[in-house]
Automatic annotation (TrEMBL):
PROSITE patterns: 6PGD
UniProt similarity note: Belongs to the 6-phosphogluconate dehydrogenase family.
Stated name of the protein: 6-phosphogluconate dehydrogenase, decarboxylating
A Pfam cross-reference name: NAD_binding_2
Gene this protein is translated from: gnd
Top-level taxon in the UniProt lineage: Bacteria
Species of origin: Calidithermus roseus
Length: 483
């Protein structure tokens, strides 16, 4: 028997993807560098299924039907390059190597070109959904060498999550690292979503003094409306869980120092490189960095006192204001993510289908949410949409939420409650909606000290001018450029 596809890497995601493939009728070869894991898997979870265990790379490659399809589910970075080098002597032109890990898109760009020079097809596939998604249906975002798509499409779309009409949450994203780029942006949006939900929780607790059980009921109710999403759903569940050791609410015994694996940082750094204002996503990353300074924060808490304000307003009205602020902030975070993808597509010459990307995120992945259907509808209506905030549906939501959003951020400031994502999203919105910003002064300052030039409001764009501000600087100016 020959395998339809082979998977290297038997950690949780690798094992579950193999089981998912086998459950859809595919025969899968499994290999792991530590061969004991292969034996345990074959004798355990894989027993009785169309899964073949290989104990060497040579045996593994020999099990695969041509063109061979090899999927790597291993740690991103040097391990991927090392495994590719080990595979190269064993593969032949037309074979396909798939990286299903959280690789940086720039590495996928490089690997696609490197393998193409050797006659091999490379696919960088972002996979989202965690271990449950991998087993029952993840969101898959493949990119790379387009010639590979016809060969991997039947498998990927069979194992992917499905929306209500049966459409798979998997489609071809674009060339080279486009798939991993979209997955990176997905993860950046995920950072923003999680931080904003935590801020809503913090406001309800710190300002209104609600218990975890009461907040859980609010989140469960929110999950029945516009905010219906996986992260809202699990938050309601988390807030009801008791710690078996102490009997306390489990969330209260978890240390407030968040970890991160780097994909949110990649999103923020890439946004800076491209010049895309993804400030809310960046604030969510910085929020985790600040949370990690636990000992310093404890020391600072003994030195500084915050405000002692007591909430005097309508408590139920404030709960609704927090809901509206959360939704408006969430829209801005997604708008930033899509803006980053649009600017990257221009930078790298990719043609991205933004409505299709929204569909890929509709089920299976961590940020799956009802309002992704509205994003798909927005791009179906206008594929050239520059920013989600300019779509009629989202513009109406933001406009109607403005007063509540501002009230929530104001209340947070007056009560000393930390809400970096809410505040940043509002600042992004206020900047984006402003025809005139104060950066004319920044540009004047740059020209004053560095002769960096400026454009004028009464002249066409693209013409640059320099002023001898002090009378001593002369007429020589710096070249005009943007990083």
């Amino acid at each position: 028997m020959q395998a339809d596809i082979g998977v290297i890497g038997l950690a949780v995601m690798g094992e579950n993807l193999i089981l998912n493939m086998a459950s859809k009728g595919f025969t899968v070869a499994a290999y792991n560098r530590t061969t004991q894991k292969v034996r345990e898997f074959i004798e355990g979870r894989a027993a009785g299924k169309n899964i073949l265990g290989a104990y060497s790379l040579e045996e593994f490659v020999g099990m695969l039907e041509r063109p061979r399809k090899v999927m790597l589910m291993i740690k991103a970075g040097s391990a991927v390059d090392a495994t590719i080098e080990q595979l190269l002597p064993l593969l032949e032109p037309g074979d396909i190597v798939i990286d299903g890990g959280n690789s940086h898109y720039a590495d996928t760009n490089r690997r696609t070109r490197y393998l193409a020079e050797r006659g091999l097809l490379f696919v960088g596939a972002g996979v989202s959904g965690g271990e449950e998604g991998a087993l029952h249906g993840p969101s898959i975002m493949p990119g790379g060498n387009p010639a590979a798509w016809e060969h991997v499409k039947p498998i990927f779309q069979a194992i992917a999550a499905k929306v209500a009409d049966g459409s798979p949450c998997c489609d071809w994203v674009g060339p080279e690292g486009a798939g991993h780029f979209v997955k990176m942006v997905h993860n950046g949006i995920e950072y923003g979503d999680m931080q904003m939900i935590a801020e809503a929780y913090s406001l309800l607790r710190a300002v209104l003094g609600l218990s975890n059980a009461e907040i859980a009921e609010i989140f469960a109710r929110w999950n029945q409306g516009e905010l219906d999403s996986y992260l809202i759903e699990i938050t309601a569940d988390i807030l009801t869980k008791k710690d078996e050791e102490t009997g306390k609410d489990l969330v209260d015994v978890i240390l407030d120092a968040a970890g991160q694996k780097g994909t949110g940082k990649w999103t923020s750094v890439t946004a800076l490189d491209i010049g895309s204002p993804s400030s809310t996503i960046a604030e969510a990353v910085f929020a985790r960095c600040l949370s990690a300074l636990k000992d310093e924060r404890v020391t600072a808490s003994r030195i500084f006192e915050g405000p002692k304000a007591e909430f005097q307003g309508d408590r139920q009205a404030f709960v609704e204001q927090v809901r509206q602020a959360l939704y408006a902030s969430k829209i801005c975070s997604y708008a930033q993510g899509y803006q980053l993808m649009r600017m990257a597509a221009q930078e790298f010459g990719w043609e991205l289908d933004y409505g299709s990307i929204a569909l890929m995120w509709r089920e299976g992945c961590i940020i799956r949410a009802r309002f992704l259907e509205n994003i798909k509808a927005a791009y179906d209506k206008n594929p050239q949409l520059q920013n989600l905030l300019l779509d009629d549906y989202f513009a109406r939501i933001i406009q109607n939420s403005q007063a509540a959003w501002r009230q929530v951020v104001t209340t947070a400031v007056l009560h000393g409650v930390w809400t970096p994502a809410f505040s940043s999203a509002l600042a992004y919105f206020d900047g984006y909606r402003s025809a005139t910003l104060s950066t004319n002064l920044v540009q004047a300052q740059r020209d004053y000290f560095g002769a960096h030039t400026y454009e004028r409001t009464d002249r066409p764009r693209g013409q640059f001018f320099h002023t001898n501000w002090t009378g001593r600087g002369g007429k020589t100016s710096s070249s005009s450029y943007n990083v």
